[in-house]
Structure prediction request, 96 residues.
Amino acid sequence: MGHINRDSLSHLWQTHATLQALRERRSLPMSQVPGCGGCEWTDFCNGSCPGMAYEMTGELNRGNPHDCYRRFLQKIDAETRRATFMPQHPEKGPAL
Prediction:
């Protein structure tokens, strides 16, 4: 990326292609991220850390496969999911 004794961090952040792509990743809708299209959770998910996704897949514009919201919800049982993510109404019980 650069050399600590020669290049300023500010300059690298603004000009290095990889860091520009990392910043631009935030503007990409999750529904357009490979592996995330068609997921019902794209409106609520940010794909987690793009740096981690890059480390695991070699691509910045991918969701982090280790931290996928859909996979997480599929792994926990329905009762835990309801208890954790559904609003509770003490007088009526859980909202379903």
In short: Residues 17-24 form the longest helix (8 residues). The chain has one domain: 9-86. The mean pLDDT is 80.
